[in-house]
Amino acid sequence: MTSIKQSKTKRIFFMTQKLMSNPGKTISLKYFVDNLGAAKSTISEDLAQIKNYLEESGEGTLYTLAGKHGGIKFIPRQSSETIANTLSELENRLTDQKRILPGGYLYMSDIVSDPDLLKKVGGIFAGYFINDQPDIVLTIETKGILLAGVTADYLGIPLAIARNNSRVTEGAVISINYISGSSNKIQTMSLPTRAIEKNSRVLLIDDFMKQGGTLKGLKNLTKEFESKVVGKGVLLERGQAQDKLITDYLSFGIINKIDEEYKDIDLRMNLPEKFIRN
Amino acid sequence: MTSIKQSKTKRIFFMTQKLMSNPGKTISLKYFVDNLGAAKSTISEDLAQIKNYLEESGEGTLYTLAGKHGGIKFIPRQSSETIANTLSELENRLTDQKRILPGGYLYMSDIVSDPDLLKKVGGIFAGYFINDQPDIVLTIETKGILLAGVTADYLGIPLAIARNNSRVTEGAVISINYISGSSNKIQTMSLPTRAIEKNSRVLLIDDFMKQGGTLKGLKNLTKEFESKVVGKGVLLERGQAQDKLITDYLSFGIINKIDEEYKDIDLRMNLPEKFIRN
Predict the structure, then answer these.
(1) What's the rounded Cα separation, in Å, for the pair A102 and A96?
(2) Which side of chain B, N or C, has fewer Cβ within a 10 Å radius?
(3) Boundaries of each Bacterial purine repressor N-terminal domain copy (chains A, B) (predicted)?
């Protein structure tokens, strides 16, 4: 730690770098004061300026938390325009005919493992669900893990990953049975007893939802941890809303139909406004 | 895009924000010139300043790429001190007695799903393996996915995830058998044929290595894609080097012994110097 007075340029660099590299994490004003050798009032002015620039860029905003554990944090609450760009990037990539697989499935493995795209999507989820004040993100192996991970990162909270088979290396677990819509059979999901603390506020994130059997399973699992689901987000869903086992979830788009013969992907993306709360 | 001339403060904010939010991605000077309404020489001076600050902070550096597709990118090539901090954080967390599970296993599920810690570890991997110029990161489900994901993100390259059972939603796959040291039985790993392009330079990342059977399997799988492994990194390994099935890998530490009765975890972390190349 240095207390040498730093130039404005260096202060702006230092604060921007710390805030952008640690989304969702509260950084105390004292930390900046100590590291930059500037008065608290100067740091506050700099932060107000960074906040303005950030909002102009449409990439997010800064939140100020008062009190003893107070400070400032970066939250990727994006502008409607930024969200619209991500939605159309996602749509373009998903509607590529080459994605159609035998049986009318859509190849999505590259999308759910693309860190770049998932950061944009996870940022949108974080900006939306921050109002629900989640303490932890919960997902299930395998394909939703990265998306759940970046969402948790942007919210500055941990992640828990349920598994279909418990492993000896996870210690005691709580298991439940559920019916997965994609395989249409009874499966087991389990989570280490120490993965979620009692009375947690849990955000469910997954890559894909058909009927919602998996999300319903995750919700039941959450109850076993004496905790509560406060939000549910999936990248994509398939089929009609009336057939769903759960309600109140947020998805980026709905796949209505994939026509293998005519190479047609009938996809409807949600509107950017859907992802913005006041 | 605006071409209104922006203040120095705003330029430093804008460039720092873009670079930090897109590690491993090359951003052209033209992009900054167009968005900030400043001369190329001014942008170059600003970037030199940001580079100095970044190196002072010990968090990374900026790389300049010349030529038509040239530009600048942020690589988290960390200082020895920054790396040492991560190593000791990891050591402190791992040697908590409460992690000892029946059978002499170590509970690590929280660590391999902690976005904050994994960003630090993934940043170190990225700073180390960038010299090997990988095109893609390859891992296997489940526990290594987040670490592999952040490493890929910092390198600005995609990720491929091998699975133990192929799914109908992945289309055609290539499968191989391998012997996993942790379960000591023959298993299958598969990867969609479209996941890795021919002649790729592949970086293998996993959370844990016992004998190296899984990494050896991933190496064999890579060969089936007519590609080449250029680096191997694991968070932790167990046991003696002479018993390993693979060589030339980088790990953060070695678990020598876990004593269930005496609640003792015998862990040796690697030295920070090990993670720095010239």
Answers:
(1) 15
(2) C
(3) 8-76
Residue of B nearest to A165 (CA): B142
Long-range contacts of B45-53 (CB under 8 A, 24+ apart): B46/B8, B46/B11, B46/B12, B46/B15, B47/B15, B47/B72, B49/A9, B49/A13, B49/B12, B50/A13, B50/B12, B50/B15, B50/B16, B50/B19, B53/A10, B53/A13, B53/A14, B53/A17
Biggest distance spanned by C-alpha atoms of chain A: 69
- Name the strand (E) or helix (H) holding A16: helix A8-21
Instruction: Please give, rounded to a whole number of angstroms, the shortest distance from the CA of B148 to a CA of chain A.
Output: 9
Q: What is the dihedral of CA A31, A36, A39, A45, to 10 degrees?
A: -90
Q: Show which of residues 131-190 on chain A sit within 8 Å of chain B, judged by CB atoms.
A: 141-142, 145-146, 149-150, 152-153, 156, 158-161, 163, 168-171, 182
B13 secondary structure, DSSP code: H
User: Is A9–B14 a contact, with Cβ atoms under 8 angstroms apart?
Assistant: no
The counts of H helices and E strands in chain B are 7, 12
- The predicted complex's ipTM stands at 0.95
Contact B160 A119 (CB under 8 A): no
Give the model confidence (pLDDT) of B49-87 as tens digits.
999 999 999 999 999 999 888 899 999 999 999 999 999
Q: Mutation target for B interface from A142, A157, A190: give the one with most B CBs within 10 A.
A: A142
Burial class (CB in 10 A: 0-12, 13-18, 19+), B188: middle
Cα–Cα nearest to B122, from B139, B107, B106, B109: B139
* B189, amino acid identity: M
CA-closest candidate to residue A124, choices A94, A85, A161: A85
Distance from the B177 Cα atom to the nearest Cα atom in chain A, whole angstroms: 20
pLDDT tens track, chain A, 278 positions: 445 778 999 999 999 999 999 999 999 999 999 999 999 999 999 999 999 999 999 999 999 999 888 899 999 999 999 999 999 999 999 999 999 998 888 999 999 999 999 999 999 999 999 999 999 999 999 999 999 999 999 999 999 999 998 777 888 999 999 988 666 789 999 999 999 999 999 999 999 999 999 999 999 999 999 999 999 999 999 987 677 999 999 999 999 999 988 899 999 999 999 999 97
Nearest to A14 among B8, B22, B53 (CB): B53
Please give the structure tokens belonging to residue B68: 């038509």
Cβ burial of A196 (10 Å; 0-12, 13-18, 19+) is: buried
DSSP state of B27: B
Which of A273, A278, A277 minimizes the C-alpha distance to A84? A273
